[in-house]
From TrEMBL, chain A:
Belongs to the SKP1 family. SUPFAM superfamilies: POZ domain, Skp1 dimerisation domain-like. Keywords: Ubl conjugation pathway. This is E3 ubiquitin ligase complex SCF subunit.
Automatic annotation (TrEMBL), chain B:
Residues 12-51 form the F-box domain. This is F-box domain-containing protein. Transmembrane segments: none annotated. Signal peptide: none annotated. It comes from Modicella reniformis. Pfam families: F-box-like. InterPro entries: F-box-like_dom_sf, F-box_dom, LRR_dom_sf.
Length: 159, 132
C-alpha cells in the first residue's frame, strides 16, 4: 500500500506505507485517517529537500526492528550500530544534519533522530564550553555566582 | 519551546537526546555552556555512578541532594558508606545496582533494604556476587 506525503513547500512524495510508518507521527495519522487517504499527509515543518532525505533513510531502514525508546539512556552503553550506509548518509554538512534532526524530531523518526544526535555529540567531542559556545553562537548566560557554583559542583567528577 | 525553531540546539528534547551520546567528560563541558544546556546535560553526568571511579562520599551534601534523583545506575557498591551516601542523596530512581562485596553485616543489609524500598518502583536489576 502507498501513502502520499506533502512537504511544507508543496512537493508530494509517494512511499510505501511501511516506509512512512517509521515516522511515529505518520503512523498515528494513518490510524486516525484510515478511511480517508485520498489526500497527501501534510508535513508542515519539513521541506522537500529534508523530506527526500528522511524518506531515503526510512527506505533503507524499512525492515529494521523497532528500537526500544527508553527515556533513560542506558543505550549510551551500547551505541547504535552504524553500518556503512549510515556512515555515508551522515556525510553532510552541519546545517543539513541540523535540518534533518529537526525533521526527524517533528516526524518522530526515532532512529534517524538518534543518528543525528550522535552526529551532534561527535561535533562537541573534547571541546571546551567556550569552544562549543563559539561554534554554535550560544551566549554565556551564567551570572558570576552561578559560574562559581558550577566550578564547585563539577569538582566531584575529578575527586 | 518553538516548534518552528530552525536550530535544534534550542530544543530541550534534542539536547536531552544528544546528552545520551556524550562521554562523561563531554557532558561536564556541555553542562557549562549555558543555563539551558546545564538543565539537559546534568542528568547525563549523574546517570551512572561507579564507586571505583567517583568519590561520591566526598561530595558536598547539598550537591548530592540536588542531583541524587538523576542517578540510575550504580556500580561497584562495596561498603556501608556507599549505600549510605546513596540514601543521603535521596536517590529514588535507581534502575540498576551492582554490588561488589560479599559482606553480610546486619548494618549493610539494613541500609541496603532501605535503599531498595526507596527505589522499588524503578529498580530493574540487582547484581550480587556469589559467596565464595
Amino acid at each position: 500500500m502507498k501513502v502520499t506525503l506533502e512537504s511544507s513547500d508543496g512537493q508530494v512524495f509517494t512511499v510505501d506505507k511501511e516506509v512512512a510508518e517509521l515516522s511515529v507521527i505518520i503512523k498515528e495519522m494513518l490510524v486516525i485517517e484510515q478511511a480517508n487517504q485520498d489526500h497527501p499527509i501534510p508535513l508542515l515543518n519539513v521541506g522537500a529537500v529534508e523530506l527526500a532525505k528522511v524518506i531515503e533513510y526510512c527506505e533503507h531502514h524499512r525492515n529494521d526492528p523497532t528500537i526500544d525508546d527508553d527515556e533513560d539512556y542506558d543505550s549510551r552503553k551500547k551505541p547504535i550500530e552504524m553500518d556503512d550506509w549510515d556512515k555515508q548518509f551522515t556525510i553532510v554538512n552541519k546545517e543539513m544534519m541540523f535540518e534533518l534532526i529537526l525533521a526527524a524530531n517533528s516526524m518522530q523518526v526515532k532512529p534517524l533522530l538518534h543518528l543525528g544526535c550522535r552526529y551532534a555529540a561527535d561535533i562537541v567531542k573534547r571541546m571546551s564550553p567556550t569552544e562549543i559556545r563559539d561554534l554554535f553562537q550560544i551566549d554565556d548566560d551564567f551570572t558570576p555566582e552561578e559560574q562559581d557554583k558550577i566550578e564547585w559542583e563539577k569538582q566531584w567528577t575529578k575527586l | 519551546m518553538d516548534p518552528t525553531s530552525s536550530n535544534p540546539l534550542e530544543l530541550p528534547e534534542i539536547l536531552r537526546e544528544i546528552s545520551r551520546f556524550v562521554t562523561l567528560r563531554d557532558a561536564v563541558a556541555c553542562a557549562q555552556v549555558c543555563k539551558a544546556w546545564t538543565d539537559n546535560f546534568v542528568s547525563a553526568i549523574w546517570h551512572t555512578i561507579d564507586f571505583d571511579v567517583h568519590k561520591l562520599i566526598k561530595v558536598d551534601l547539598m550537591v548530592l541532594k540536588k542531583h541524587g534523583h538523576h542517578i540510575r545506575v550504580v556500580k561497584n557498591t562495596k561498603q556501608v558508606d556507599h549505600i549510605l551516601v546513596l540514601l543521603k542523596s535521596n536517590a529514588s530512581k535507581l534502575r540498576r545496582l551492582y554490588l561488589n562485596t560479599t559482606t553480610s553485616s546486619p548494618e549493610f543489609q539494613a541500609y541496603f533494604y532501605d535503599l531498595m524500598r526507596r527505589n522499588n518502583t524503578t529498580i530493574e536489576h540487582i547484581e550480587i556476587p556469589q559467596n565464595p
